[in-house]
Specification:
By secondary structure, the chain is α/β, with parallel strands linked by helices. It has helices at 8-17, 28-41, 58-64, 77-86, 123-135, 159-171; strands spanning 46-52, 67-74, 93-97, 109-115, 137-148, 175-183, 186-193.
């Protein structure tokens, strides 16, 4: 469901009024949050990552350092333009402009990052998105989610509710919750997709550990 507060026009107005409306590039809180996210997933090298809602590309740059390829996108053209500028020279980053609800990025991925995006969807839509993303995740692949725990009139769900929806969807789809942490201001969970006994990844889908 798209409303005035979750539409492309809404976010584009935000970015045109302020190039970094949530201070992702300058806030000490955001910098610490990104560091914590990256620490939680840098125990391995990833082949291909998906980052919906990349905003101005601050976390995208960090992901590029631990991934062979990063597919990142945002709903606001101005945000994508800023992310492209920030990621200049990073040939392993591909950026595009589209809403998560319409994303059909071809998998497989061995890392999916959901950062500060889940609250913009109602429960049924968020669950549909979660299952769609999970279907494009390689066995052994990782999904990490991190969301602010405050409230906003622009959000359909609070951060805790987002993670409750994700947990419910993933636990029924062979994802194992390996990390669940709360920090001042935000919550972070990490899941890994179970490898089925005897299953061999299809040719060209080997995960780089």
């Amino acid at each position: 469901m798209t409303t005035a507060a979750t539409s492309e026009a809404f976010f584009e107005r935000k970015y045109r009024a302020d190039a970094d409306p949530w201070n992702f590039a300058t806030s000490p809180y955001e910098q610490q949050r990104y560091e914590i996210i990256l620490r939680a997933i840098d125990h391995r090298r990833y082949h291909r990552a998906l980052e919906p809602g990349c905003s101005v590309g601050v976390l995208t740059c960090g992901l590029a350092s631990i991934c062979d390829a990063v597919e990142a996108f945002d709903i606001a053209p101005s945000a994508v333009a800023a992310a492209r500028e920030r990621c200049t020279g990073m040939n392993n980053v591909h950026l595009s402009c589209k809403p998560l609800s319409e994303d059909r990025s071809a998998g497989p991925f061995d890392l999916i990052v959901l950062s500060e995006i889940g609250y913009y969807f109602e429960v049924v839509e968020l669950r549909r998105i979660a299952i769609s993303l999970m279907a494009r995740l390689l066995e052994g692949g990782v999904i990490i989610a991190a969301h602010w725990l405050g409230t906003s009139s622009d959000h359909f769900l609070a951060g805790d509710a987002v993670h409750d929806v994700l947990r419910s969807a993933f636990e029924q789809e062979d994802l194992v919750l390996e990390l669940a942490d709360s920090y001042p201001g935000f919550r972070m969970d990490r899941w890994t997709k179970v490898r089925r006994p005897g299953h061999q990844p299809a040719k060209g889908q080997q995960v780089k550990a």
